[in-house]
Amino acid sequence: MKNWQSVLYVVVLALISIVTGEIVTFIMLGFILMSLQNIHKTLRSMLELKKEEKYSIESDE
Predict the structure, then answer these.
(1) What is the distance between the alpha carbons of residues 61 and 50, in angstroms, rounded to a whole number?
(2) Which of 4, 9, 26, 46 meets the CB 3.0–4.6 Å disulfide criterion with 17?
(3) 39: how many CB neighbours lie within 10 A of its CB?
(4) Which alpha helices (H) appear in the chain, and where do they start and end?
(5) Cα(48)–Cα(17) distance, rounded to whole angstroms?
């Protein structure tokens, strides 16, 4: 997800949480989103490493 999309998403969630009075829910959603983004980055880097490894093995043969 692009950075501006993340910021827009957070702003919309913040406005909704302020209107409804669910500030704690907003904070917890923030923690969940940060965790999911970290997992996504890790999986993406692992996939890139796997692709590089696959191509290097194929070129060695």
Answers:
(1) 17
(2) 26
(3) 10
(4) 3-20, 23-60
(5) 37
